[in-house]
Amino acid sequence: MGDRRAAAEVFPLPEGIDWHGVVGSDADSVELKMLLALDGAPVPTETTRRRGARRVYLLDTPELDLCLAGVNLRVRRRGPRRFDLVVRVRDRDRVTGRRGPREARVELDVLPGNLLRTTQLRRTVDPDTATACLDAAAPLGSLLSGTQRRWLQTLLPEGMPETVLDALVLHGPLTTHRYRVPRARFAVGRAFLEHCRYPSGRELRELSVKCRPVDAPRAAVALARFLADHRIEVAPGHRTKTALWIEEIREGRAAS
User: Fold this and answer.
1) Calpha distance 76→104 (Å, rounded)
2) Rounded to whole angstroms, how far apart are CA atoms 104 and 107?
3) Which residues of the chain, if any, have pLDDT below 50?
4) DSSP states of 39-78 as a string?
5) What's the distance, CA 142 to chain centroid?
6) Cα 139 to chain center, whole Å?
7) Distance (Å, whole) CA 80 – CA 175
8) In b/e form, how buried is each residue of 77-116, taking b as 16+ CB within 10 angstroms?
9) CA 252, CA 211: separation in Å to the nearest integer?
10) Which residue of 16, 55, 137, 194 sits 20 to 30 Å from the alpha carbon of 170, by its own alpha carbon?
11) Cβ burial, residue 212 (10 Å; 0-12/13-18/19+)
12) pLDDT (0 to 100) of residue 175
C-alpha cells in the first residue's frame, strides 16, 4: 500500500483511476514515462552498447486522419536491414478495454497525470519490401500483414473507405537514440533513456521504465528515487512523442 501511495504522488493518475486498477489490470506490461529537461544532468547509461539511430515513419493520410482518430501505423528502421511495422490504437484514461487480435499486446503507458491503454500488433517486415516502400517504389499498403489490415479496417473512422489503406503517405522520419540504464542503478523493471530529434530540429529526452503491472507502483517509486539521487531535472508537463510529432506535422502543413 505504501508503494501505491508514493506512486500516486510521482505519477498522479486521472480522476477515477487508481494504482490498484493498474496493478490488477489485464495488460501485458506497464511503461512509466517521464520527460527530462534537455540541458539537465546526464542519465547514467550502459556505455558498452552501440548507439545506433532508429528512424521511425508514420503512415497516414496527408491530413493525418488515422492519427487524429487514435490509430497509429509506424514503420521503424531498427538497424541495418531490420524493419518492423506496428499498428497501434490508444484509449485515453482507461485501464481495461479492447485487446484487438489474439496476437496483439496491451500496454498501459503511465505519464504524470495521464494514462493510455495501448493495444498494438507488430510484424517484422522483409527488408527489401520495406526499402522499396520507403523509396516510393512500392505501395505502402503492402507493408501490412493480412491480420493488421483486417484489424485496421475495424478501426477506421466512420465514413472513411477501406481504400484509404492503399493510399497512405509517409511522414517523417523521427530519429531516436535509445540507451539502456544499467540494472545495477535501477533495480525494478527495464529502464531506458530515449533521445528524439524531430524533422524540425526539436528534441526530446524521455526516461521510461517497463515492468509487469504488479511491479508498477514499486517501479514508480524507484524512478523518483533514481531522479533524485542523480539530480536529474524533469521537464514541465508531459506530452507523448507521437502527440508532439502530430502537432509538428500539422504545423508544417499549415505553414506551407
Assistant:
1) 17
2) 10
3) none
4) TSPPPP--SSS--PEEEEEEEE-TT-HHHHTTEEEEEEEE
5) 23
6) 25
7) 15
8) beeeeebebebbbbbeebbeeeebeeebebbbbbbeebbb
9) 36
10) 194
11) middle
12) 92
Q: At 155, which helix (H) or strand (E)?
A: helix 146-155
The Cα–Cα gap between 159 and 162 comes to 9
Separation of alpha carbons 189 and 210, rounded Å: 5
Report in angstroms the alpha-carbon separations of 6 from 16, 23, 54, 72.
Answer: 18, 14, 34, 33
How far apart, in whole angstroms, are the C-alpha atoms of residue 156 and residue 142?
18
Closest to 192 in 3D by CA, of 178, 176, 175, 203: 178
3-state secondary structure of 136: coil
What are the respective helix, strand and coil percentages of the chain, to the nearest 5?
Answer: 30, 35, 35
What dihedral angle (degrees, nearest 10) is formed by the CA atoms of 45, 32, 38, 72? 110
Count of C-beta atoms within a 10 Å radius of residue 151: 20
Q: Cell numbers 514508480 label which residue?
A: 220
Q: For cell 487514435, name the residue.
A: 70
Question: What's the pLDDT tens digit per position in 118-127?
Answer: 999 999 999 9
Residue with cell 542503478: 185
pLDDT at 51: 61
Which pLDDT score, from 0 to 100, does residue 81 have?
84
What pTM was computed for the model? 0.90
